[in-house]
Design brief:
The protein is about 40% helix and about 15% strand. The chain contains 12 helices and 14 strands. It has a 7-stranded mixed β-sheet, with helices on both faces. Helix 4 links the parallel strand 3 and strand 4 (about 115-120). The longest helix has 24 residues, at about 265-285.
């Protein structure tokens, strides 16, 4: 029987009370219908997308420089990850997952009857990806190593050398590496030189499988458009799973997502302009507070500070919400209770006011 997993972060995120200043989310501020040019005219309810919507697959292929045979669409990045787990895992298999980390990447394998084994990305090492820790965690039953880059919750981008070494380790042990890149398009390191092509992990070899969506980096959460980039052989296995689950996505979503890709450079510019302004605010606010420690993210939509000498941020985050109507994510949901995650993708005014509330709470000794 498959294991049961409660996903405490997801439960909290989907049931928590709203806050006037919400810095708990990790997506770029939502696009309106009018900001996605042509969206109103694209809301036709019929069309052919059984198996795949060809214009969308072609757009993803071009954006990430992979063959169309290696592109599989999915219901958001979480849906993409689940399809990969379902395609590659069987009860009794092992999955090596980073810590701190996003709990859906633990829950989905456990639902399928796999065992999760953790390796650490530590504050002391700048949350860097350490291939030696991965090597020590792998077992003979390991079928997947799971990584996020930029890292959720710290926003740190894994180095190309570290990723490729993890790939060699996994391949030598008959495993694949699933890299959740849902924040990558917002990170400056995602671009290949002056090109508009995003360099994903899958470009480094068939041992890698990359997942992402239009959600976090582009402000298009409502579309729930996700995808998997892989070798054609893995893509065939993933598509077989999707046929059992839902066959195809919404034609409305697929058509609007293809429309978004036709104006992706403008959406990228929108996101990066917003994040550039918000990162400047965060640097100024957090650097000015000697009681805070943090690793500065490079272009990502989150940052993961901690208060010196405080082992659990729960009291601080609860008082911040109760007394200042400001939400951040307690670090306990990522197995790092001393920290709290701040989302940087909201409107600049929301981020500015939210940071001011955090500063006021620190001044008041709210921990």
């Amino acid at each position: 029987m498959a294991s049961r997993f409660d996903a405490p972060y997801l439960q909290w995120a989907t049931t928590r009370a709203p806050a006037r200043l919400d810095l708990a989310g990790s997506a770029v501020a939502a696009c309106t219908v009018d900001e996605l040019e042509g969206a109103r005219d694209a809301l036709e309810l019929t069309g052919e997308n059984t198996g795949a919507y060809v214009p969308l697959v072609g757009a993803i292929s071009a954006r990430y420089g992979v063959p169309e045979a290696g592109v599989t669409t999915a219901h958001g990045a979480s849906g993409a990850n689940f399809l990969v787990f379902a395609a590659l895992l069987a009860p009794g298999d092992d999955v090596v997952v980073e810590r701190p980390g996003y709990d859906a990447l633990l829950g989905a394998p456990q639902i399928l009857g796999a065992r999760t084994i953790r390796f650490d990305r530590t504050f002391r090492d700048g949350f860097a990806l350490d291939p030696d820790r991965v090597r020590r965690a792998i077992t003979a039953e390991t079928r997947l190593v799971v990584i996020t880059t930029p890292h959720n919750p710290s926003g740190v981008v894994a180095s190309r050398d570290a990723l490729e070494e993890v790939g060699r380790i996994a391949e030598a042990n008959g495993a694949h590496v699933l890299v959740d890149e849902v924040y990558l398009d917002a990170a400056d390191s995602g671009m290949q030189g002056g090109s508009s092509v995003i360099r994903t992990a899958v470009a480094s070899g068939e041992v890698f499988i990359s997942t992402s969506s239009l959600t976090k980096s582009y402000g298009l959460t409502g579309l729930r458009c996700g995808w998997i980039l892989s070798s054609p052989a893995i893509a065939d296995r993933v598509r077989n799973v999707r046929r059992v689950i839902d066959v195809a996505g919404s034609i409305v979503t697929d058509r609007l997502a293809a429309l978004a890709f036709r104006q992706i450079d403008r959406l990228t510019s929108r996101a990066r302009t917003l994040l550039h302004a918000n990162h400047a605010l965060v640097r100024a606010s957090l650097r000015a507070r000697p009681e805070l420690e943090f690793i500065e993210p490079r272009g990502s939509t989150v940052v993961f500070p901690r208060i010196r000498g405080v082992d659990d941020s729960r009291r601080f985050t609860e008082r911040l919400l109760d007394e200042r109507d400001t939400a951040v994510v307690p670090g306990r949901f990522f197995d790092a209770p001393a920290h709290f995650r701040i989302g940087l993708g909201g409107t600049t005014e929301t981020v500015r006011l939210g940071l001011a509330a955090i500063v006021a709470a620190l001044d008041a000794g709210a921990w």
